[in-house]
Each structure stands twice: as structure tokens, then as C-alpha cells.
Amino acid sequence: MTGYHLVLQHPNIDGCDLSCLHALRPSEIESPFPDSVRRFAANPGDILAPKVAAALDAQQIDYALLPALPFSAFGLIVSDMDSTLITIECVDEIAAEAGLKEQVAAITERSMRGETDFKQSLHERVGLLAGLPETALQKVYDEVLRLSPGAEYLLSECRKHGVKFMLVSGGFTFFTDRLRERLDLDYAFANVLETENGRLTGRLKGRPVDAHAKLRLLREYRARLGLNPEQVIAVGDGANDIPMLREAGFGIAYHAKPKTRQAARLHINYNGLEALRRWFL
């Protein structure tokens, strides 16, 4: 039977005050990440006392109750793109090229918080991009898009341990295709922006990639790879990620909106994507 651990993560874990956990017994399993991770023996039904959780949050320590599994036990990670694998919301930055960033970003924020329908808000935002030259997309990719901290490390660990990585985005294939090639991702799916004569029409081609599509793709590739639900990790930040986070064996809200944090079993609030790898052995 797999044991459970309370796992703590902080870039300088030795410098943190963990006296609030004095009653817990350190795990007998040596952590492969001694500089940033501490493990304590736990039981599946354990719940941190509010005062303990508050003390850890005050020091920006991420924490989770997890089975003591090796990372190689997983077969697939399904990840959102915007504000998860990368630091930006691409549609907002494209809109900046038309002087509409503030307007579009406000729609994005409401959508990611689950306050408006994602599909409706997507079409509204894309419509505002009508007339922009395709070169605006390349400019965003070249000059603005940045990977989230820990992304390249996580991907290298996936390749090392045989874990497939799938990018599923409510953003655009212009970016996911380039990231797939650049980062050697196994799979990537997103919305297709329609263009005519080198300019955006303000419309999408094909069915939109929304929350239902993300869930469908997770289920489809889980079945294709012959995996059990417990072998799949999903990570995202917005309300449209909630169905896939709930479906995965381990759903992780990454620097997420409140509604998404509430729905997810696990949270990375302070560390980068390296924390996803370091939850496990």
C-alpha cells in the first residue's frame, strides 16, 4: 500500500520556520530535492489545521497531502497554456497591438474567473482583433511570450521519466504550434484564427477549444495511452480548466483564480512549474 506524505515546497526550505509542524514525523523516504522539499508522514484523511495552513501560506510555502509516488508512475500531463505554461494571456497581448488590451483583458479576466461564458467571451475577444495583420501574432511570440518559471525543467523531467505532455489551450494554434515544435511537446491543441489577405477576420475556424473540449481531449488521450485516471495530471489556472482538473487523478490549480483553486485538489500558489514535478519522488 502506498504511504502518504504532507509535502512542503519552498526555494529555501531550510530557511523556513516549520515549528508549526512539530507534532509530525518526518518521512523516512529521503527527498530527491533536499533544498526545496520537506516530507512528513501522513494519512490519506489528514487535514491541516487552519492555523498551520495560515503559517505556511504566510511564508509562501506550497503544501499538499499526496501519495508517495514516483513521477514515473504517471503517463500524461495535460496543461493549459496562457498563464500556466507561459506567463501571458496571448489574446490580451495581441489586442495590445490594436490599442485594445485593457478592454480585452477585462473580458479575459471575467471569463477566467468563471463570471462569463468562455465560448461567448472568446468570440467577443476574437471579434475585436478583426483587421490586425498576422505579423502582430509573430511580434507577440517573439517579444512578449515567456515560459513560466520551471516550465523547461518540468518538460525535461517528463522526457526523462517517459511522461507525455499535452498542451490544451483556449488560445490559438499560432502559439501552441510554435511551442510544440520549440519544446518538443507530444500533443498540442488550440483554436484556429481565421485570416484573409494577411489579416485577422475576427473569426475562428472550426469548433472552439473550451472547457468541454479540454475534458474530451484528456479523456481521449488517456484512453489512447491506456492510462488509469490516477496516471493523469492536469494543470491550469482558469475556470475553463475546472472540468479537466476534476477529471484528472491529480488536478493542480497553478497560480489560479479563486473558483479554480476551490475546485482543484492541489494548488501551486507560490512556486513555479518545477513544483509539479517535485510533489512526487
Count of separate structural domains = 2
Overall CATH class of the largest domain: Alpha Beta
Which percent range describes the beta-strand content?
Answer: 15-25%
The strand line-up of the biggest sheet is 7-6-5-4-8-9-10
Parts with pLDDT < 50 across at least 5 consecutive residues:
none
Structural descriptors:
281 residues, alpha/beta, Alpha-Beta Plaits, Rossmann fold, 2 domains, seven-stranded mixed β-sheet, three-stranded antiparallel β-sheet, 10 strands, 22% strand
Structural write-up:
The protein has 281 residues and is an alpha/beta fold. The protein has two domains: 1-68, Alpha-Beta Plaits; 69-88 and 147-280, Rossmann fold (3-Layer(aba) Sandwich), CATH 3.40.50. Helices cover 37% and strands 22% of the residues. It is built from twelve helices and ten strands. It has a seven-stranded mixed beta sheet with strand order 7-6-5-4-8-9-10, sandwiched between helices. Strand 5, helix 8 (173-183) and strand 6 (187-196) form a beta-alpha-beta unit. Helix 3 (90-96) packs antiparallel against helix 4 and helix 4 runs antiparallel to helix 5 (118-127). The mean pLDDT is 97. Its cofactor is Mg(2+). The active site is at residues 80, 82. GO terms for molecular function: L-phosphoserine phosphatase activity; magnesium ion binding.
Structure, briefly:
The protein has 281 residues and is of the alpha/beta class. The chain has helices spanning 50-58, 81-85, 90-96, 101-112, 118-127, 135-143, 151-161, 173-183, 211-224, 242-247, 258-263, 274-278, and strands at residues 4-9, 37-42, 62-67, 76-79, 164-172, 187-196, 199-205, 232-236, 250-254, 266-268. It has two domains: 1-68, Alpha-Beta Plaits (2-Layer Sandwich), CATH 3.30.70; 69-88 and 147-280, 3-Layer(aba) Sandwich (Rossmann fold), CATH 3.40.50.
